[in-house]
Amino acid sequence: MLEERRLAVLRAIVEDYVSTHEPVGSKALVERHNLGVSPATIRNDMAALEEEGFIAQPHTSAGRVPTDLGYRLFVDRLSTVKPLSPPERRAIHRFLDEAVDLDDVMSRTVRLLAQITRQVALVQYPSLTRSSIRHIDLVALTPSRLILIIIVDTGRVEQRVIEFTEPVNEQLLADVRARLVASLSGQPFASVPDAVEEFDTAFEPVDRPTVSAIVTAVLECARERTDERVVLGGTAHLARYGEAFPIAIQPVLEALEEQVVLLRLLGESTNPAAVTVRIGHENPFEGLAATSVVTATYGRGDQPVASLGVVGPTHMDYPGNIAAVQAVARYVSRILDEQ
Amino acid sequence: MLEERRLAVLRAIVEDYVSTHEPVGSKALVERHNLGVSPATIRNDMAALEEEGFIAQPHTSAGRVPTDLGYRLFVDRLSTVKPLSPPERRAIHRFLDEAVDLDDVMSRTVRLLAQITRQVALVQYPSLTRSSIRHIDLVALTPSRLILIIIVDTGRVEQRVIEFTEPVNEQLLADVRARLVASLSGQPFASVPDAVEEFDTAFEPVDRPTVSAIVTAVLECARERTDERVVLGGTAHLARYGEAFPIAIQPVLEALEEQVVLLRLLGESTNPAAVTVRIGHENPFEGLAATSVVTATYGRGDQPVASLGVVGPTHMDYPGNIAAVQAVARYVSRILDEQ
DNA sequence: CTTGGCACTCGTCACCTGTGAGTGCCAAGT
DNA sequence: ACTTGGCACTCACAGGTGACGAGTGCCAAG
Questions:
Q1: Which CATH code for domain B4-76?
Q2: Among all strands, which nt has the closest C1' to B64 (CA)?
Q3: A5/chain B closest Cα distance in angstroms
Q4: What is the pLDDT at residue A17?
Q5: Which of A18, A213, A218, B59 is the most exposed place for a label (fewest CB within 10 A)?
């Protein structure tokens, strides 16, 4: 009973603060939400909540503001799902269905997510580690310069240039190509190292240096590039907070320019299906201490292949953003399934 | 003589304003640059310059600030080239030489340019219209789902998924592939439409719908995607201007999110080799009215293939940025030449 | 054409003050 | 045992004032 009202107060504080961006006081709280008690009572509850670390006051005698811990409690126990409106769902449908290829899906997704959440959106390309090779190709750009192309079942295409000091024999090239296709098509990326082991023993000793250079390139593709690509959109939303809101945007923009940061943010969505929310200081980066990150995985069938999500100020609309991220992740999964 | 001093005054104003970001007054001007005259004289010159529209005062009794027109004059006639320091040149070298493929060159270039100019950097992928096809490939993802891959002489790889309602005959696929390679390899992109005209007449009537679907995809690649890709970096520098400098960053970020805008900014570098500077309102976009854009083309040999540049506040260091953009464009050209 | 002098403008800053939102605490009420 | 009204207290903020000073335009003399 007592405990319950306190939680209601916390919820009310979070909701008010999110919508007004101003510290919320006891009186205003009673007026706006019809809690059936007086401001004085609320004040007692607030004191208790502050004691426990869920809210704080920016300065003596201002209203209260939720702390990271407060948002955490709100997200975990107090927020109710806020389903998307039918028009929003339809917009998602319509917009994503028009995509013609994977690049298009990714760029449409990021724009869509940024638009409906009005936050910065992140979308990771399907991870190679969780994919299989569909086809592999080797093309000569010049006699001594090859380009290696790997097509993955998600539709992603990887490429890498391989340079030689001497021209490469065309017949050899065709041979290597054929053997690569034979031994790698359909293989999951994870088993590439095993599949190409001893690969060069099938060739004449003179050709082995060339062959192993190619194999090395394949391995590097499989190793280095694994999750490399993330697309970003909606950064303009960061500047929306008129002049110096709790959020300084420069460190955020800096953090978002680092692929490593983006990958880490997206990579830690542990449980598939569920949405992961990282609030304020829970983020592993200094520059993102005033932001929250909402992510979800998408995939083919039950297999998660990558993540997407949004980044915004800690005082974001969690229910709305969670719903949006989840919905978009589901639609993207569906599109991948169709392929 | 008279005219000459006025220009010197304008140059001094631009230089001071760029370095301090504060309106510059007659007294300070005389102190910092050793013009051999008194403040009063300078004031007369300033009045004249203001009359002609090269400078303006933010409010009565504050110093003067250059107008867009003033910067224009400065760039066209008053600025001296500021060559990069040898360490900077070496850094460019070292950094770009490590690139392994085109994607890598592009992303390294944008990071490099952003870092040395401390501005937002833009780099356009080699334009397809100005390139030739090196190789073309057609791979079945599933029996009814093909992926078309076009490799361009600059190392750029384009892809597009083609979907059929019915499975496609493998033999036919191989046939189409061979003919595409035969008729398109080495062709400049511009001549693709001619080269594929009547392409389907060589096939059995039953196969023609399939064949023309593929041809359509090739054409679409050639048409739509022509210049599509631009990479962007260093947006964090926009936020560097501590709180509300003449520049509101939201419209700028919004503009920079539009591919159309980026392409237009980069696409209008008319004369190759030279650097193009667009100042403030000279930009064709509302949101960029407080920014200047410095661009240059890069290419293979004498053939320009695309552009790169930086975007920053109008009070940028023009000589420095021009030198940097030009140097980077040259190095990128050189790298493309080597390939 | 240049220069020193001078009156004038006006933004900035420091300081002050009143106001009001918001708090914590306490004693009385249920 | 919780709730409530009352009350004193704190403190950010807005508005007003005045000193200051940077900078200007104009003018008469050099």
A1: 1.10.10.10
A2: D23
A3: 41
A4: 94
A5: B59
Instruction: Please list the residue range(s) of chain B that carry CATH number 3.30.450.40.
Output: 86-126+228-338
Contacts of B230 in chain A (CB under 8 A): none
**Exposed e or buried b for every residue in A277-304, given b needs 16+ CB within 10 A?**
bbbbebbebebbbbbbbbbbbbbbeeeb
Tens-place pLDDT, residues B169-192: 888 888 888 888 888 888 888 888
**Does A134 lie at the interface with B, CB-CB under 8 angstroms?**
yes
Is it the case that residue A244 has pLDDT exceeding 70? no
CB pairs under 8 A between A and B: 96
Mutate to test the interface with B, among A119, A159, A216, A254 (most CBs of B within 10 A): A159
Which nucleotide comes closest to A64 if you measure CA to C1'? C22
Is A318 exposed, middle or buried, given 0-12, 13-18 or 19+ CB atoms closer than 10 A?
Answer: buried
Predicted structure pTM score: 0.86
Q: Which nucleotide is nearest to A43 (CA to C1')?
A: C23
- Whether B34 sits with its Cβ under 7 A from any strand D atom: the answer reads no
pLDDT score, position A132: 85
Task: Tell me which CATH code domain A86-126+228-338 carries.
Answer: 3.30.450.40
A103-143 pLDDT tens trace: 889 999 999 999 999 999 999 998 877 788 888 888 887 88
Nearest beta carbon to residue B239 from set A134, A140, A249: A249
State chain A's mean pLDDT as an integer: 87
Question: Closest by alpha carbon to A311, among A241, A254, A232, A229?
Answer: A232
Query: Is beta strand A133-142 parallel, antiparallel or unpaired with respect to A145-152?
Result: antiparallel
- State CA B51 to chain mean position distance: 35
pLDDT, tens only, A132-173: 888 888 888 788 888 888 888 777 888 888 888 888 888 888
> Where does chain B hold its CATH 3.30.390.60 domain(s)?
129-223
Asked if A310 and A117 touch (Cβ cutoff 8 Å), the reply is yes
CB contact under 8 A, B239 and A257: no
Restricting to A residues 225-264, those with a Cβ less than 8 Å away from any Cβ of B are: 233-236, 238-240, 243-244, 248-250, 253-254, 257
Least confident of A229-233, B3-7, B284-288, B299-303: B299-303
Q: Which residues of A touch B154 (CB under 8 A)?
A: none
The total of other beta-carbon atoms located within 10 Å of residue B267's CB is 16
Nearest to A328 by CA among A154, A110, A125: A110
User: Is the domain defined by B129-223 classed in CATH 3.40.50.1220?
Assistant: no
